[in-house]
Automatic annotation (TrEMBL):
Residues 1-338 form the Biotin carboxylation domain. SMART domains: Biotin_carb_C. GO terms for cellular component: mitochondrial matrix. This is Propionyl-CoA carboxylase alpha chain, mitochondrial.
Length: 546
């Protein structure tokens, strides 16, 4: 069967733009069917689970080979996530914005649209940052999209809250993508700017009451931003799953204009069996600037210990100049970080500030060791593989650091037992977190969302440290280790097999997503340390090459 999508043409008429084609998985000829159908649409195409959502069971294919691989992974992920391995294929539109319209309908034929949500910041086709309204839409386009969304809801006699999703190009042409017949993860930003409680409205509709609001009653008041906080390592493909137990957890709900939707608490376990989302962090302001500033503060004040999280990525995205200007699309992350996310923003602009804060912590944690009568201390600081000699001094409540010809001052009345440390650096208020410290001078601090490993030594200790042997790095081209915790779905090689660089070795499923592990070089398989069904941890050895 097929459904027809529509493209905006600048008038009230719409024309077909692409087709949705559904496929029932069969035992024979399934890949051939998919590939032949892809030729009808032309590449690239999007393969996706018909019962899916949240980026699960979705793959982009640019040729026949990627179509066959995409079918395999998408159908397996769909079965694992939704208990339904049926797929659909559609034309893929490159570099669009992802903008959706919230609709609300009742059982009496009434329906309204509750403005739009901008959802273009994504990784692996799953949204990461959302906001309402969209900085891109004008009132004319907003109304046209809203009216089409309501027309669709009325055509199928839809009753409840739902979302009609569109792709929007640079000329504000919009293309129907899909309708989600449920409450979306990002619904809080709509509640913030309209004042409506969508869950309450859904319950009223389910009870049979008519809608209480007309279209003219739906406002846009202020601006709201949502960041999805995940238990993920953002330095690995913008977010590979992390598992563990939350040893410490504190939401920043003490700040103004902050809302947190979560279902966890200190001691909760993050496992490989469910989606890695920790919470939805929402900030609201009178305008976009205020909402984003509140999001910066909320991310800095969010305490998550025990699992790796993506706050560093979220913090950099919302202060990126392209994001602030509204120059975004669904490829934003790969465009801005073509070599992957590195978390270098603070290191680039605030290197000396990081050194200062680390030395401040070092000084106060080591008060009994450093002689109080000394006016200055010459210390060695290693940050991001660079070693610097700095001069630190203390005068009353002010601590100063001189490095590379510049001097910074910090004052604070903090409580070192608190996980949040508020300091004033040359008149600018900053919030940092000290995650760990060791007697040998190794410290881990979180600043502007990013975690930095800093090694601080006294002058004598730094001189002696030169004689310490460096640990020899492992030759990672000859071994394949799991980059994440998960379950081995399939192993494609055995000892003695010859493999080519980039060839699939095995498949690991983590949090309902399947990941193909490939060979780092051409060679012969020496040993295989896993089999289908095994549970593996991050860093576990999977396969060795000769």
């Amino acid at each position: 069967s097929s459904l027809t999508g529509f493209q905006k043409t600048g008038s009230s008429s719409f024309r077909p733009h692409f087709q949705y084609l559904f496929y029932q998985r069969s035992l024979q000829g399934k890949s051939e069917l998919l590939s032949n159908s892809s030729l009808l649409l032309g590449y690239p195409v999007m393969i996706k689970a018909s019962a899916g959502g949240g980026g699960k069971g979705m793959r982009i294919a640019w040729d026949d080979e990627e179509t066959r691989d995409g079918f395999r992974f998408s159908s397996q992920e769909a079965a694992s996530s939704f208990g339904d391995d049926r797929l659909l294929i559609e034309k893929f539109i490159d570099n669009p914005r992802h903008i959706e319209i919230q609709v609300l309908g009742d059982k009496h034929g009434n329906a309204v649209w509750l403005n739009e949500r901008e959802c273009s910041i994504q990784r692996r086709n799953q949204k990461v940052v959302e906001e309402a309204p969209s900085i891109f839409l004008d009132s004319k386009t907003r109304r046209a999209m809203g009216e089409q969304a309501v027309a669709l809801a009325k055509a199928v006699k839809y009753s409840s809250a739902g979302t009609v999703e569109f792709l929007v190009d640079s000329k504000k042409n919009f293309y129907f993508l899909e309708m989600n017949t449920r409450l979306q993860v990002e619904h809080p930003v709509t509640e913030c700017i309209t004042g409506l409680d969508l869950v309450q409205e859904m319950i009223r509709v389910a009870k049979g009451y008519p809608l209480r609001h007309k279209q003219a009653d739906i406002p846009i008041n202020g601006w709201a931003v949502e960041c999805r906080v995940y238990a993920e390592d953002p330095y690995k493909s913008f977010g590979l799953p992390s598992i563990g137990r939350l040893s410490q957890y504190q939401e920043p709900i003490h700040l103004p204009g902050v809302r947190v939707d979560s279902g966890i608490q200190p001691g909760s376990d993050i496992s490989i069996y469910y989606d890695p989302m920790i919470s939805k962090l929402i900030t609201y302001g009178s305008d976009r600037t205020e909402a984003l500033k509140r999001m910066e503060d909320a991310l800095d004040n969010y305490i998550i210990r025990g699992v790796t999280h993506n706050i560093a990525l979220l913090r950099e995205v919302i202060i990126n100049s392209r994001f602030i200007e509204g120059d975004i699309n669904t490829k934003f992350l790969s465009d801005v970080y073509p070599d992957g996310f590195k978390g270098l923003y603070a290191l680039k602009y605030f290197t000396n500030t990081i050194k200062l804060l680390t030395l401040f912590l070092f000084f106060y944690f080591r008060v009994p060791i450093i002689k109080p009568q000394m006016a200055n201390w010459e210390l060695s600081v290693k940050l991001h593989d660079e070693v610097h000699t700095v001069i630190a001094s203390n005068s009353g409540p002010t601590f100063s650091v001189e490095v590379d010809g510049s001097k910074l001052n910090v004052t604070s009345t903090w409580n070192l037992a608190s996980p949040l440390l508020s300091v004033n650096v040359d008149g600018i208020q900053r919030t940092i977190q000290c995650l760990s410290r060791e007697a040998g001078g190794n410290m881990s601090i979180q600043f502007l969302g990013t975690v930095y490993q800093v090694h601080v030594l006294t002058k004598l200790a730094a001189e002696l440290n030169k004689f310490m042997l460096e640990k020899v790095a492992e030759d990672t081209s000859s071994v394949l280790r799991s980059p994440m915790p998960g379950v081995v779905v399939a192993v494609s090689v055995k000892p003695g097999d010859m493999v080519a660089e980039g060839q699939e070795i095995c498949v690991i499923e983590a949090m309902k997503m399947q990941n193909s592990m490939t060979a780092g070089k051409t060679g012969k398989v020496k040993s295989v340390h896993c089999k289908a069904g095994d549970t593996v941890g991050e860093g576990d050895l999977l396969v060795e090459l000769e």
